Every structure is written in structure tokens, then in C-alpha cells.
Amino acid sequence: MERLDRIKQLLRTLPEKPGVYKHLDKDGGILYIGKAKNLKKRVSSYFSKTHDEARLRMLVRRVVSIDVIVTETEYDALLLENTLIKQHQPWYNINLKDGKTYPWICIKKERFPRVFSTRQRIEDGSEYFGPYPSGRMLGTLLDLIRQLYPLRTCALNLSESAVDAGKYRVCLEYQMHNCLGPCEARQTEAAYMEDIASVRKLLKGEWSAIKQRLHGQMMMHAAKQEFELAQACKEKLDHLEKYQAKSTVLNPAVGEVDVYSVIDDVEYGYVNFLMVREGAVLQSYTLELKKKMEETPAEMLELAIPEIRLRFGSDAKMLLLSHDVELDLAGVQFQVPQRGDKAAVVALSQRNARAQRLERLKNMQIVDPDRHVNRILAQMKQDLRLSEEPQHIECFDNSNIQGTHPVSACVVFKNAKPAKKEYRHFNVKTVQGPDDFATMEEVVYRRYKRMMDEGQSLPQLILIDGGKGQLSAAVEALNKLGLRGKIAILGIAKRLEELYFPGDSVPLYLDKRSETLKVLQQARNEAHRFGITFHRNKRSKASIGSALEAIPGVGPATIEVLLKTFKSAAGVKRASAEALENAVGPAKAKKVMAWVAETSAKPTT
């Protein structure tokens, strides 16, 4: 039961993004590697239904933990899955995939080896590459091999004695230049095996060596003025470039590198490691570090890099980093890329680190919600440079249309969550016309003057929806009350989510994914929604009231009774004489009925 509970917990925290997942057994061994367009939905499907396939049921019973690697697109996930399967070759990947095995590419152990696809592995010394989860990819790869190298496709036994005896004749493939005729000794075994060696490198992803060889051959033929042969080499290079552009997760120009990135919060740092070889991610791992002395991201990288290199036995000479470090490793270069392919690799690493952090935070929110709230408040204190955690936040927003019916709203957040019972509306009393600054000063003054008079506890943070002007007006209200410096206050401007502090003309910009910014945005949006709803209702009532105000001899008190009884001007017009008399008396009822008759009369022609 403990295993199932742990898996359910993992499933609740998985990201809804494309990527690769690994099912792990109790010893940490990889049982199965798969890809997903949506990791949360795909992985959850294993444990949310009964499976007909016996081996699939066996796989699910053996799963103890799940690792995921987030990718940019579903196609990237497919390619990364393919790379990892080739590297780890989990047993269930070979024996379980929609009731059939994946195809492989075989280099047959024979004289003049054939290269072909197969679903059966025969232990006869032949070489197998794969498995390939995409038949389209496998077909593209075989087409590329045929375009680059004229290998035989026949199953003839090309033993030395049979060839020397002239047992075979060249076929149509030779006439079409798809084969160089080893069956009639028109191609030497040594030359053929050079092509097979290149095919082997291509299947291993060693693109650079192949391109260098082709480029050398092209230049050699060009120097000899063998332009047709040089053009053939150039076309092969083009085919290789096109395939490589489609079949790598990352640009191969990045080379053989290790990538390290870090993201952190108040309590933890998350260092992600990607092992990149020939443009493919072979390994992804995220190390979680508990902060002890407010370590910087660079310091956490310095701690993590030696440990991770030792753990994975990596000897890469180039490390791409998200932060500069003061670390000396013999023969190793460090680089913090700012743009281009290398920066894209670091960004991919950071996405995986962020996914690991999000998974942990979701888990904490489910298991220990109080700790989750405390962590957010501590993060807000740090991000906003506050003297105490903002357990009580209040946000103000004004609403009016060209100065008509000005109102303001105050929403309250307790422990980073809305406390809707404590929301308040304000009808603006002292301001005439569309003066947003004066309105803000009035409502902030009234709010905290009343709270002080009633002995209520004041908030730790006041948030003003607006820029420097609205913020200055609110600060002036706090000055009048003697609260300046006792309550933290800041303004949030909508366009770029700029945060303004009193007396500071330079705004603070938080990361768009910051939890602090998300809490402030939620408070701002709540205040806007709450204020707009109140303003809309007030305008609606005003329009109704103005219609009834046209009744001669009927004052505000009578209008209020009519609205309370009949809800609207239309309801008053539909009311019977008896109902009107019961509501406002016979005299007023006659005036109302006369008004109804006058406004309902149609002009005659």
C-alpha cells in the first residue's frame, strides 16, 4: 500500500508538458522508457485502468518510482526517448509496445554485409541498432543510408569462392547505380567495408566524422576536375544535413558538453544536469540542495558539479552553465552562453530544473499545506525586501467611467489566499470628477482610520493597483494617519507588471513565473473584479432610479420603496393599481399610474 500511495503522490505532481518518462523498480533500475505529449495524463493512464496485456500488468506492479524529463515539443520527446532506449535498453521497451517489438536496423554478419530493418534479433554476431519507436524515422534513416552508400540489398551468398567462380551476375540495382556490383567483384571488399564503417558511425550518431570524410572526398574529386563525383558527394552532404536537422534534439554544433543550470527559492536550490553528445541528450538528472547559509546559485553549482560528474563518470571538457562559477577543473572550460544554440541547451536544462521544483512544491502543498504557505510568505518577504512576512495583504483599486459613479474596492488576502468575507466596497464621498489620485487617498485614509478607531490589526503589506501617482496618493493618506513606515506599501502597474516602492523611481521586475508575483497579480485581479462588479451594479441602479425620478410628485423615499417592492422600473409599469396602492398608498399610486399611462401611450397617426 505504501508503494501505491507514493505513486499516487508522484502522479499528482507531474507536469502537463511533453517529455519522456522512466518507470523505475525498487532498486532504481529502469523498467520502461516512454514519451508523452502530456506527461501527467500519459503516466497516470498506467495506474488508472485495468490492462488486458499480462506483461503490462506485470510492469505496473513493479513500478516503484517515476522520473521525467521535460522537452520543448512532442517530437523532441520522441527523439529523446529513442536515444535513451538505445542507451539503456530497458527490458519492457523491447518486449512491450502495443503488443509488438520495436524494429531495429541490422548490419548483417556476412561478407559484404547488408543493412536492413528487422523486428527479430538473431544472435549470430550481427550488429543491431535501435530499437526505433517511429517507423517513419527508421524508414527515413534507411533511405539516407541508401542515398549515401550504394550497398547491396540482395541475399546472395557472396563468398570469395562463389564470386571468383563467376556464379552471379549484376542485377537492375547495379544498372540504377544503387549497388557497385560486389557479386561480380566490381567493388572490393575493403572499399565496401569503408562504407559499412561509415554506416556504423551514422547509426551511432557520429555525424562529424562522416561529414569530414564526405567533404574530403568532394574536395579531392573537385581538385581532379571530377565534377560529377564531387557533386554526388555534395548531394550526400546535403542529405546528411537535412536528416540531422530533423533527428536531433539539440544542434550538433553544441558538440560533446555537459550542461548545468540552477534555480532556487528561499529554502532549496535545484541543479539540473544534461549530458549532451552529438546533439542528443543522453542523461538528465536534477540534484536538490537544502540551503544552510543563503547560498547563491553560483555557490550551489560549485557544490553540485563535482558530485554529479563523479556520479555519472563524465569527462566532458566543456561545461555550459547558467551562472558564472569560481571552480577549477583541470582541462575543463566553463561557459555561460547568452544566445544561440548553447543558450537554448541551458534553457532546456532550466526547464527541467523548474519542473523538478514545481513537482516538489506541489507535493509539499498536498502533504504539508502549512509549510507550503510559510514558504511562499518567506519568499515574498525576500523578493519584496520586507521586514516581516506579509501574512495580511490588502489591495485597492478604483473604478469609474469618465468620473461618474466613482467607487473603490479593497480585497484582503490572509496567508497568500483570498479572505472574501473581509472584502470592502467604498462609495467615494469627497472627490468630484475623474480624479484617481484623490480617490485613492480618500479610500486608503478611510480604511485605516476606521481600522485604527476599532482597534483592528493592520496589514503587513498594502498593494495599490496603479503606478507612481496612485502610490504617492496612498502614501499621503498613511502620512496623515501616522502609519508611514509602519506598513509596507507598493504599487503594481498593469502593462509590464512593474512594482513601485515609495521614493524609488526605478521599478522592481520579478520573474514572470515568480510565486510572489503570482500572489500580487491575483490580489490585483481580485480587486479589479470586485470593484468593477460594484461599479456596474451601481450604474445599473442609478439608471433605474433616474427613470422613476421622472414621476411628478414622487420623491427618493417612494422610489426606494418602489424598487424594493417591484425590483425595477419595468416591474413598476407591470404592477396592478392594487399592488401600487398597497406599496405606496392611494395618492402616490395615482401619480405612478398616471406616469405609467403617459410613458406607455403610443403616438397616433
Offer a quick outline of the entry:
By secondary structure, this protein is of the alpha+beta class.
Rounded Rg: 37 Å
CATH top level of the domain at 385-538? Alpha Beta
Tertiary shape: elongated
* Name of the CATH homologous superfamily of the domain at 385-538: UvrC, RNAse H endonuclease domain
Query: Helix count, per DSSP?
Result: 21
Outline the biggest β-sheet: 7 strands, mixed
Termini, distance in Å? 86 Å
**Relative strand content:** 15-25%
Structural class, by secondary structure, is alpha+beta
User: Which CATH architecture of the domain at 385-538?
Assistant: 2-Layer Sandwich
Average pLDDT rating: 81
How much helix, percentage-wise, in residues?
40-55%
CATH topology group of the domain at 385-538: Nucleotidyltransferase, domain 5
Report the uncertain regions: 95-100
Number of strands: 18
Describe the protein's architecture and organization.
The chain is an alpha+beta fold and 605 residues long. Among the domains are: 2-95, GIY-YIG endonuclease, CATH 3.40.1440; 252-364, 2-Layer Sandwich (Nucleotidyltransferase, domain 5), CATH 3.30.420; 385-538, UvrC, RNAse H endonuclease domain (Nucleotidyltransferase, domain 5, 2-Layer Sandwich), CATH 3.30.420.340; 549-600, DNA polymerase, domain 1. Helices cover 48% and strands 18% of the residues. It contains 21 helices and 18 strands. The strands form four sheets. Strands 12, 13, 14, 15, 16, 17 and 18 form a seven-stranded mixed β-sheet that branches. A five-stranded mixed β-sheet has the order 9-8-7-10-11. Strand 1 and strand 2 (30-36) form a beta hairpin. The chain is elongated, with a radius of gyration of 37 Å.
